Amino acid sequence: MNFNDLSIFENLESEVRSYCRGFPAVFHKAKDHKLWDLDGNEYVDFFSGAGALNYGHNNEKMKQALIQYLTEDGITHSLDMASKAKAEFLQSFNDIILKPRNLDYKTMFPGPTGTNTVESALKLARKVTGRTNVISFTNGFHGMTIGALSVTGNAFKRQGAGIPLNHSVTMPYDAYNGDTKAQLDYVKQFIDDNGSGVDMPAAFILETVQGEGGLNAASNEWLQGIEKICRERGILLIIDDVQAGVGRTGTFFSFEPAGINPDIVCLSKSIGGYGLPLALTLIKPEYDIWAPGEHNGTFRGNNPAFVAATAALEYWKDDTLEKSVQEKSKKITNFLQDMTKKYPELRGSLKGRGFMQGIACDVEGLAEDVAEKAFEKGLIMETAGAEDEVFKLFPPITIDDAGLEDGLNRLEAAIEATVKQKDLVTS
Amino acid sequence: MNFNDLSIFENLESEVRSYCRGFPAVFHKAKDHKLWDLDGNEYVDFFSGAGALNYGHNNEKMKQALIQYLTEDGITHSLDMASKAKAEFLQSFNDIILKPRNLDYKTMFPGPTGTNTVESALKLARKVTGRTNVISFTNGFHGMTIGALSVTGNAFKRQGAGIPLNHSVTMPYDAYNGDTKAQLDYVKQFIDDNGSGVDMPAAFILETVQGEGGLNAASNEWLQGIEKICRERGILLIIDDVQAGVGRTGTFFSFEPAGINPDIVCLSKSIGGYGLPLALTLIKPEYDIWAPGEHNGTFRGNNPAFVAATAALEYWKDDTLEKSVQEKSKKITNFLQDMTKKYPELRGSLKGRGFMQGIACDVEGLAEDVAEKAFEKGLIMETAGAEDEVFKLFPPITIDDAGLEDGLNRLEAAIEATVKQKDLVTS
Amino acid sequence: MNFNDLSIFENLESEVRSYCRGFPAVFHKAKDHKLWDLDGNEYVDFFSGAGALNYGHNNEKMKQALIQYLTEDGITHSLDMASKAKAEFLQSFNDIILKPRNLDYKTMFPGPTGTNTVESALKLARKVTGRTNVISFTNGFHGMTIGALSVTGNAFKRQGAGIPLNHSVTMPYDAYNGDTKAQLDYVKQFIDDNGSGVDMPAAFILETVQGEGGLNAASNEWLQGIEKICRERGILLIIDDVQAGVGRTGTFFSFEPAGINPDIVCLSKSIGGYGLPLALTLIKPEYDIWAPGEHNGTFRGNNPAFVAATAALEYWKDDTLEKSVQEKSKKITNFLQDMTKKYPELRGSLKGRGFMQGIACDVEGLAEDVAEKAFEKGLIMETAGAEDEVFKLFPPITIDDAGLEDGLNRLEAAIEATVKQKDLVTS
Amino acid sequence: MNFNDLSIFENLESEVRSYCRGFPAVFHKAKDHKLWDLDGNEYVDFFSGAGALNYGHNNEKMKQALIQYLTEDGITHSLDMASKAKAEFLQSFNDIILKPRNLDYKTMFPGPTGTNTVESALKLARKVTGRTNVISFTNGFHGMTIGALSVTGNAFKRQGAGIPLNHSVTMPYDAYNGDTKAQLDYVKQFIDDNGSGVDMPAAFILETVQGEGGLNAASNEWLQGIEKICRERGILLIIDDVQAGVGRTGTFFSFEPAGINPDIVCLSKSIGGYGLPLALTLIKPEYDIWAPGEHNGTFRGNNPAFVAATAALEYWKDDTLEKSVQEKSKKITNFLQDMTKKYPELRGSLKGRGFMQGIACDVEGLAEDVAEKAFEKGLIMETAGAEDEVFKLFPPITIDDAGLEDGLNRLEAAIEATVKQKDLVTS
């Protein structure tokens, strides 16, 4: 077998495959912020598995823990039976993450993917309130199964459902088409007006920074306003922190700077630490009214993921990582500001915060061109937004200065090449 | 930390947890058909992770392949980028499983869980046909996200949705309330009668043996009849082989003995070999009309699972395993027949086939009592059916004769104890 | 203006028009069982406005009452304000119809059409039970608005909705594909089995004789069985007596011979007596939990219809009409039996009961040919069934012997002509 | 029988009755703008059957036409068969209404109520476009059957559905929470943004003046903007003119001043002239793609209503009525402005236009108090708005100056009494 080309995927894998079209190489080895393909080409990773690899690839400490666990024949798959690995994770997560942040949540393992935690959160909010409607927000992305897709904004993804998507209403996200106050007023008026046609919702579901939707970062004021609307009306607040959580914005939970206290939190992607499938649904104890087994799933007990996840929590025992992410975030911001000034052809504006920043290009197709050129320069990076109008920097949050520098240099080279090429074409 | 008790789970994990209530022990080590808890107690596993551990726990060959892959820093998480591990799996799956069975499918990785593959199958069938309705069958179980739950029969699980479940119609499964011919006629009449109120469906979705629904095994005649109904009317046939597939019934796919050729096949659970999350959706090439990225998910590229899955396929290079499963299945059948005769108090009748057999007890609560007593005897086993009326034998398909014997002996001890206890109570 | 042709309708009316295509004449005058078109051609009416003209056209007594009411400037339109005409109707309906039959219902005026009463009944049943699912039956017809259409069987009508129709499940009507006991068992099993996928319903809705669905008449045994299923499980029983009620089957309510006591009864069509729009929803007092105005509509207070309806109730003060209908029904049955024997080419079988009988022809298109020929012979008659396979006799229940004779003669002439013509074609 | 009290309604009619609670009298006679109860008390009608009696009660010319038609035994009920009365109506409607306004519509008779025409319009728009979503607007009211209720804003009415209402999205009506431009931009952004979560709609449905929703009158600019949004995106524009049409705002169609050309127009209420049930759906010929009978109903052929409706059209042969309505509308406006100045305690602001004006009172319960006092003064008048915050003047458009004066005087007396009473209570 020769795996140096993509023909095997073209022949045997479904047409639904997508990233392998944008990054046409067969990858084999990976470490921290680097990947190598079968021809030995090296790539810098500013993609991080769409946020599932916040600690980079194959983190050495987690790797050793995993190998030891496998070697000892620790139980691998345990459904939702009790296991030592799970107990250790629950205890560490409570001690290292929840308690120091004054958060009191019961932890549910809803199945190992982001869409599973969202589906479980929606079910529970509907059960708690006895209402069916859920408010989601423009450009929100919450998953691909029917429940989660119903609260997702993207038209192309929605179309794929094959059935009308119901039981949800979209409201404008912060700064969607007005300032923060206007957006909050809009929501309030629709909820409070008995003639608005918007049924009283069970919950609001939102991301504090919308990863897929174009790196839209909500202001603290908006998040606080939304929480207040919920509190005053008995509506549950669900924060989907699947992509923005686990340190990507500079704090463990993305909502910490806003000082809000969600009723339900959805976590997945990087919570597993090593890229292994794991998801959590955090629930305020008073809302944990599930009957046993009312939601379940086969892969709730992915013990290798518990082992890696527990090892990953070591990073949060002090504030070293947080501080590092916050400092490097400024570097990224500065770099992107420089880019928009130096290359006005981008017609660029900065989006996002922390380690989920990028540039929205007001030129059709340009962000995609930048991502394509970046790949040619050995940088892996994707676009976001309903029209793929944003190129998106998602380095591992553990990346060192040299690695970040290297990636940013490659990105500038890609931007330069894109702008030049465009120039040749249009002139 | 002391993990010898369950208090940590009671304090920190959601009320939704279920198996840990039926099997109150904290498990740590596992190998093949055995598990050990933290106190060193040994258990025989007749549960197999609800069908996710058909090859038992921590299979040594797969383990070595996994450790080697981890050690070499093979890429762990790759979304749907091309990777060497994925290429090897695709090629092996095609060469070892599909080609020898004259099956021509494109493989889709829909996200790593059973409910993901079901959701993707329903979406695709609706896209292909332009219809919204899907026919499912009584006591079918297909998953817990809204799309999959809509085609699931269990009232308790459905109730958990919190919204009405729509876009689906339930028809009687084989032998539900009549003989095979009657059940097929029923389906035909509802589909063909323009006054029946049943809209022309995009697809039928069914399990050949219903695992959760009570070990109902469809006859070949019924499966062929269902396929014929689909073919004649342009309806897609989706076989959900998540639980019954990967050798559990004695052949790789559960539908092989019936000689049918489904349009879409859902696989998960044991396809990953080692209990790691993995799912496949197999699609006839002519129906593989997905647009790139129309369905996606973060954990589609679980490379350790590809590595273990590829290693697991070695079992299927010749018919040794198949023959062994088929022979041992007879032993199980014989044993269960003996039990119903020896213990008429069970009011038992045999259910299922292959390594998914059990006894339906026509006495309320009795099957649950047997499972409970079995746990006391060191045997892990669950119940099935809408009223938990069936106790269910799900040993690993790789179990050796001694292991099977051991488990069956423990089971008989449990049955005896249950019957006796009941006797004392009722007399 | 010349109205002797249909061009004005072709030019100005929507393509949705239908009966004017089957009965291509411009009608002007009508009296009792006769109509005349603009050219003075006389027609016998075996159609009765699809059951809205049980007392024939322009009944003289009702006409005088109407003219008097108009002349006196009695209030015409009163929404749901109290009016003398409405009070008189309520009192008469209670005294003449309900009390003598030991029925205790509150009367609701839900808007003047059949689909309005059905929608109100479904809303109320859902409110009373807190459940969303409603069980309807194969070949049931309940109306064309989305709520009523969701419980209607006809595929063509359903397709017209333009959205998937949900919140309902179809079950087999009596003798649909088995004997009465088998059909009842089927329903019971689906309702009682917690794994069937059929959610516990708020209500059953059914017609005792299905008018549009092909003149299927339920047996008393089936109706009693259905009522029992409802009673034992707290499910509401809604009888849609819009077409079969008001004497058409020989008793005022079609369900009287079965001795059942529905929770909600839907009446429209002939309840207005003179063909004026009126509908009632009869509700057991204990279920009359509507909030004021929770269901409303502009034409609930159609006072001319109250006036005619009250006059029509005079027919029910003794059993003269009932006896007459029952006797003439036998004549119709005898005639139809004769027809099937005399014209075996019809491959006919008798359907329905009372003044809603007909012949199902097991030859494609034949029933429609008979209706077409009948029109040529001056007899107005329509077909029923999902494939229009039944020709349907719907004379006014007040028709005299001569009129009935006349109509039957014309029908036989039409049958003879149809059979002959077919003969010529096929030989 | 003594009908001087309401006990008969309390005993025999459903709790759902509402207007008879606000207007506790048993009405018997009515003429033009006056009603009399059984005790002979006279009332001025500023309610007009919620817009169904634009020509007042028992208009003498229509009455004579009706009596003549009845006397001649003209056909009363004809389903959708061709009749002389219907032909005459179609021709007159085309000649007198459509042609002079350069409107080219096919006329559909969808069943005789407002909710029927709305349901038919929604079905057709979905059929034409192949889309399921429909955009409705805040505080819109379109009917009480499930399809129409799904596009209705009122929370209390929606709740009554008993099922979640889907397949629709509410957008802000003109001036809902911003100026006209802001509201149009909002709609545009949600429709055009592929990430908004609002699926491309089949149609917009709206009232130009919202009767039930609180007498909100859209500006011409907004209506034109909405039409432009529809045209540019292939969305159908449905104007629900059931309440605002047939002269109530001063022109036959309410949308004439805006110069827009809707794709579908819904008419009912006053189109029947005399308060008899009748509804029309007007369809641009290119969208009249109904299959025969795809939507139907029993009372589509209400010939007495055709007769009265044709007689009513005489009013539109010249512009006398239009001019009179427009002049009297100014009087009403002036009167209401006076009231808000003279009685600042009302905290009143003017709403609506033409003969559908009123005052919104920013004091809880005050508008209802005014309506109650008005009744005591012999004036029949209702409230509107989600909180019943508007008292609403709906005189017949044919009212003479003396009648209008009389009504306004009674209204002022009611306002004065309300304000005084409130004063006593609060001081």
UniProtKB/TrEMBL annotation, chains A, B, C, D:
<dbReference type="Pfam" id="PF00202">
    <property type="entry name" value="Aminotran_3"/>
</dbReference>
<dbReference type="InterPro" id="IPR005814">
    <property type="entry name" value="Aminotrans_3"/>
</dbReference>
<comment type="pathway">
    <text>Amine and polyamine biosynthesis; ectoine biosynthesis; L-ectoine from L-aspartate 4-semialdehyde: step 1/3.</text>
</comment>
<dbReference type="InterPro" id="IPR015424">
    <property type="entry name" value="PyrdxlP-dep_Trfase"/>
</dbReference>
<dbReference type="GO" id="GO:0047307">
    <property type="term" value="F:diaminobutyrate-pyruvate transaminase activity"/>
</dbReference>
<dbReference type="InterPro" id="IPR015422">
    <property type="entry name" value="PyrdxlP-dep_Trfase_small"/>
</dbReference>
<dbReference type="InterPro" id="IPR015421">
    <property type="entry name" value="PyrdxlP-dep_Trfase_major"/>
</dbReference>
<protein>
    <recommendedName>
        <fullName>Diaminobutyrate--2-oxoglutarate transaminase</fullName>
        <ecNumber>2.6.1.76</ecNumber>
    </recommendedName>
</protein>
<keyword id="KW-0663">Pyridoxal phosphate</keyword>
<dbReference type="InterPro" id="IPR049704">
    <property type="entry name" value="Aminotrans_3_PPA_site"/>
</dbReference>
<comment type="similarity">
    <text>Belongs to the class-III pyridoxal-phosphate-dependent aminotransferase family.</text>
</comment>
<keyword id="KW-0032">Aminotransferase</keyword>
<dbReference type="GO" id="GO:0019491">
    <property type="term" value="P:ectoine biosynthetic process"/>
</dbReference>
<dbReference type="GO" id="GO:0030170">
    <property type="term" value="F:pyridoxal phosphate binding"/>
</dbReference>
<dbReference type="InterPro" id="IPR012773">
    <property type="entry name" value="Ectoine_EctB"/>
</dbReference>
<dbReference type="InterPro" id="IPR004637">
    <property type="entry name" value="Dat"/>
</dbReference>
<dbReference type="GO" id="GO:0045303">
    <property type="term" value="F:diaminobutyrate-2-oxoglutarate transaminase activity"/>
</dbReference>
<keyword id="KW-0808">Transferase</keyword>
